[in-house]
Amino acid sequence: MIVLWLLLALPVAGGVVAAMIPSPRAVLLLCVIGALAEVVLAALVVPAALDAPVFAGGRQLMLDALSAYHLGLVVVVFAFSSVFALRYFGPLVQDGTFSRGTARRFGAAWFGFLASMVMVLLANNVGLLWVAMETTTLASALLVCLEFDPPSVKASWTYMMICSVGIALALLGTFLLCGEARNVTTGTESPFLWTDLVRAAPRMRPGGVKLAFLFLLVGYGTKAGLAPMHTWLPDAHGQAPTPVSAVLSGVLLNCAMYAISRFVPVVDAVTGGDGWASTLLVPFGLVSILVAVAFIAHERDLKRLLAYCSIEHTGIIALALGLGAMPAALFHTLGHSIAKMVAFFSVGFLARQHGTRDSQAISGMLRVSPLAGMGLLLAVLALAGAPPFSLFMSELWVAIEGVEQGHTAVVVAFLLGVAVIAVVLLRPVLGMVWRPVAKGGRAAGLGWIDWLLVAAPLAVLGLLGLWMPALLTDALNKAAAILRGG
What we know:
By secondary structure, the protein is mainly α. It has helices at 2-18, 24-51, 65-94, 100-122, 126-144, 150-182, 194-200, 206-224, 232-239, 242-271, 276-296, 302-322, 326-354, 365-368, 370-383, 390-404, 408-434, 448-466, 470-483; strands at 54-56, 61-63.
């Protein structure tokens, strides 16, 4: 289907054009236009993919219900973040800080990042998936060190080195899995295509596939920020420009978890559905939640605080997949992407208005920065799992599914972990609200576009906590059926 090729070609062309445009503001406008055009293309093909897989390139590209669900998240978060980038870098364009060279690097890497994530989701070939995932590292590393100062360069190198080691392990796992598949596939089947791997899985040897999945989980889990492979994440999120942080946390981690989840039905089919994959996913999820508790409690930098919060929520998604709560995992992915996007937008506005990201140095947040302060407060409440936001419902959904599957002890540990995180996550934010305004503090106003960037996603989070549209329910069920091997 030609739309799949257009989904890839549009950001590639956008990156080439952005690298040649002389005006920084024109580059930012091009990013907005390109991201919105990608939303339109996705809207043309996602409904069809929810009903039946859409193929292109001799079945090398495929969009099914699972990848279509994630594609929708990617393009929407990129569109919002592109508009935010225009607002965020606008003052820097005016004072000359965001130069022509910086703008060109940003535009080329921004579109390259989008193209690589779209390729992750469209790849029906596990080798192509690996290449696309490695490309996301290269493109996003250029965005992390956009300012090119020593801290950002260090964070970018750390990110590249750790994730490259992880992606190398994922490559080894891919080789092992495809090697096992090659021994059992027929002449009409390919050992590299998802569609054929699932059919050939019952004929594979369990031992080899289990070893392959272990390497794949650790490899792609490094990119997803699962503990203890998470160490790159706080530095990269903390040093990247805020629009980049929003995309890194909002959808890049989802793409890595998507890659892991794709292998789960293959492993289940090989092992006869004995839950072997769950024995790995559950402990990784619980450890990630535990690690997040330890670091969130002592972190003062707001962006790093949100980065550790990403580790928690990635852990919750992994835990939900391990417990077999597939629709809950996908619903939580949606809520986390939206809430984290708004949280980073709000921190970006706050840092610009207060001149700092130190939670101890910000006071009277709601008076000095009404929009950013309210946006951060509500987004953090959502991330803490407070009702009526959708993340409360998805966490409750995970707990109910876990108890029904007989994993009561795991559910108790999960609930204790998220309860403690809710306390330590809200403490610095409430401190910024309650502390009196410093002398000379005054309210700072923002435009209607800024209000829309913050208020619209928050309204969606609140609505989804109270009402589940039939279209979303259908998408969750169809995507979950693929994760169950259906």
